[in-house]
Amino acid sequence: MISEYFPILLFIAVGVAMGLVLPLAGALLSRAFKSHNPDSEKLSAYECGFDAFEDARTKFDVRYYLVAILFIIFDLEIAFLFPWAIALDQIGLTGFVAMMIFLALLVVGFVYEWKKGALDWD
Description:
The chain is about 70% helix and about 0% strand. By secondary structure, the chain is mostly helical.
């Protein structure tokens, strides 16, 4: 009976070990290679566009988050397309029509966001 649960227990053990070892290794390595004189690249703005050491309560542009959410939506679309493409010969015309409706709805949403200016950065 225990042999049936061994893969699950092994998965949990590896997950807990990784959850403990990796942060500990990061903390130890950061102390070993700590730089007291950060260069201009470390002090530059991150990809979200605002400085790293500003006040956290300042106003910021939400378009970055809107683009990130749009990326997640279209990334999930691709996640649905791969299994659909593999099983297309088995699901037939019904599956094809259902996916075309799904893609049409995504295109309508994309055009709506485009017309609203959500993808414009000025």
